[in-house]
Amino acid sequence: MSKQHIKLSIGVVIIVASVAYLMFSGATGSTMYFLTVPEVHQKLSTLQGEQIRVAGKVTAEPIAWDVSKLALGFVIGDEQVRLPVQYKGVKPDMFQPGVDVIVEGRIGRDGVLTASVLMTSCPSKYEADKNLTL
Predict the structure, then answer these.
(1) For residues 66 and 26, which has the higher predicted lDDT (pLDDT)?
(2) Structure-derived torsion over alpha carbons of residues 122, 124, 127, 129, reported in degrees to the nearest 10
(3) pTM of the predicted protein model
(4) Which in 12, 21, 71, 109 has the greatest CB count within 10 A?
(5) Which fold has domain 34-126?
(6) Cα separation of 86 and 104, whole Å?
(7) What is d(CA 105, CA 52) in angstroms, rounded to the nearest whole number?
(8) Spatial distance between the Cα atoms of 53 and 19, rounded to a whole number of angstroms
């Protein structure tokens, strides 16, 4: 092989390795698993201060919404396990008790999840009717 072919081969290997590294590091850096409220309670001491994503249902407990400060306080969970959440930002239109939500944030020493992201799931009225026959 000539020197030109060797240089070209080394250049291609470096480019392929660089692209593979960037893809791998980008994918692992943004990976965040969903946790349920019971899972959070089981691992509460190890999750404090960690960035987590939790999926749950807004409970029927009172929702504290301060429009002037854009501060929202609510609880997610079920009858047995609950997780208080504090969120600063615009309240989603479909946010209400009984709605499934996904929150991302950090749990403090007090057990309150301070959320930086709040998303609601589509309500069941948008799902297809299972009794419908074609």
Answers:
(1) 66
(2) -170
(3) 0.69
(4) 71
(5) OB fold (Dihydrolipoamide Acetyltransferase, E2P) (2.40.50)
(6) 11
(7) 6
(8) 29
Write out the two tokens for 47: 């999750």
Tens digit of each residue's pLDDT (9 = 90 or more) over 9-50: 999 999 999 998 888 776 655 556 789 999 999 998 888 888
Are 84 and 113 in contact by the 8 Å Cβ rule? The answer is yes
Structure tokens at 1: 């092989």
* Domain spans of the chain, in order of start: 1-31, 34-126
Q: What distance in Å separates the CA atoms of residue 25 and residue 21, rounded to the nearest whole number? A: 6
- Burial class of 118 by CB neighbour count within 10 A (0 to 12, 13 to 18, 19+): buried
Pairwise CA distance, residues 50 & 66, whole Å = 27
Q: What is the pLDDT of residue 79?
A: 83
Task: Say what the pLDDT of residue 121 is.
Answer: 80
Q: What are 40's two structure tokens?
A: 């959070």
69: which 2 tokens? 């400060």
Q: What angle do CA 38, 43, 45 make, to 5 degrees?
A: 130
54, 36 Cβ separation under 8 angstroms: yes
Contact 97, 60 (CB under 8 A): yes
